Amino acid sequence: MLAQCSVVVPTIGRPSLDVLLDALAAAPGPRPAELVLVDDRPTGEPLRPDRPGLPPVRVVRTGGGGPARARNLGWRTARTEWIAFLDDDVVPDPDWYERLEQDLADLGPDVAGSQGRVRVPLPEDRRPTDWERGTAGLATSSWITADLAYRRSALAAVGGFDERFPRAFREDSDLALRIMDTGARLVRGERWITHPVRPTGRWTSVRVQAGNADDVLMRRLHGPDWRAPHRAAAPLGRRPQHTAVTAAALAALGLALARRPGAAALAAATWAAGTAEFAWRRIAPGPRDRAEVTTMLATSALIPPLATWHWLRGVVQHVGVRRWRGLPDLVLFDRDGTLVHDFPYNGDPDWVRPVDGAKEALDALRARGVRVGVVSNQSGVARGLITTEQVHACMKRLDELLGPFDTVQFCPHGPDDACDCRKPAPGMVTAACAGLGVEPARCVVIGDIAADVDAAAAAGATAIMVPTPVTRNSEVDAAPRVAATLTAAVGDVLAGEW
User: Fold this and answer.
1) Going from the N-terminus, what domains does the chain have, and what CATH number goes with each?
2) I want to staple 162 with a disulfide (CB 3.0 to 4.6 A). Which of 324, 408, 423, 426 is the partner?
3) What keywords appear on the UniProt entry (predicted)?
């Protein structure tokens, strides 16, 4: 089973990554097909994960896109049936490989994911701090990707992680809900990881209040019951109390400016009481040393207004938001007129000349883990104007200039041959998808004429037209999506607008 599993670890190069890799290298048992490290740092020295005992390691880089994008790049570049996600600050148990194999064995087709179990060690010689208690909540959280294995097909079906979640917060719950909405099940396995409490600064609890905006996004995407136990199982927390305390503070300020001292004093007392109650709830279960108490007092005054501010920011930011579709799994390009300048019935590799921006556009797709291919009508073969060997020579030159391509399809037939491959027939599109294991609904076809658009529609794929001087106005008017340039078309794809 592990031969059909890739382990994906997004990382920003923290020292904890070395601890994780040491644990994976030392663990006995079978090895997965590969370990994909996704370096999410904007810059930095390349990761050097060389250790005997690790499965084959591959490092890919996002350039700094955040945890959702990093995980997406990891699973998109893997080709196994299962993708097991691990965070870079966890430590798998010694039997993790063996338990993972057991957890995935014989799961029914209705099961899309298996979550590992998490322990969070807390200090034994003192009471835990507020930050430590918060981290301990991971032990009972649902569908967190600290250790969660998904079927790759389930990830592809929903477009993977929603990259509009910029932090390592709620993006895993959102993915789980979208996958369960397809009718698939998620289960809990028997493998274990340890999630140590990371060292943190004094103001971390203030910074994490930005997650309130992500909660608004969750509500907009999944409805008011998204927190329910049978869904994300996410407690509401103290946001209503934070809103009330913030309202009391604003009322006190407004009443004071209106020269109503009595009412202002009452509102201020309400704010002080609410803030004190919040601070005590955080201080009482903790170690109560000087550093913890002063931190709790300071941050308890700041958290309510910041939580309210970020919640309001989310309300404004996420108006009219639509469910994440993600990137396509495959983008197929027409050749002549789209990727290269059109020289009719060209059989000379020297005349294969890319259009402006073609290389950059293709590389941008590859950098995000999207596979690319070519579907090209070559009726010059049937007409006796060029040979099949010349077509192959031109395709080879295309690959040298713009490759590598994951699939190259061409039709040598003429318009009167009644084949099922010549565009607008869907044959080349369906063959490309079938050969790569891609659902046509997760494929985009980019071309310059109606035949490209019609072939995509017939196959169940999405089409984007990039008109050229030979494109008829009627074809442009009928196209469901039109982009001015190849660069713009690929930009739309990368933005999820396809």
Assistant:
1) 2-200 (3.90.550.10), 239-317 (no CATH), 330-494 (3.40.50.1000)
2) 324
3) Carbohydrate metabolism, Cytoplasm, Hydrolase, Metal-binding
